[in-house]
Amino acid sequence: AAPRGAAVVLAMVLAAMVVAPPATVHAAISCSTVYSTLMPCLQYVQQGGSPARGCCTGIQNLLAEANNSPDRRTICGCLKNVANGASGGPYITRAAALPSKCNVALPYKISPSVDCNSYVSTNF
Description:
Layout: H1 2-19, H2 31-37, H3 42-47, H4 53-65, H5 69-86, H6 90-101
């Protein structure tokens, strides 16, 4: 009887873990994920022309995965870091144009001065 009772308790605990929302939501997306996903955009940012198909797909995938405020904040912060490194030349202008070139509605600008906390609750 004891093993059966333990199995029932374990099943109830597992069910509660699945049904109950987490106490805090942590970002599942890291800057390394953002950077590697957007690597196909590098050629466009450096040389101009048209973004590669993989670039636009990468942006769309990141937006689809950013389903909570911590993920949106992380992506914004990663893009802000890139913008800080690219400021002062044609690179930042090209990077900032990526969402429109890819027909993607990014709720914030790719800019070194963007306030990522202003956009965290925005639905993508």
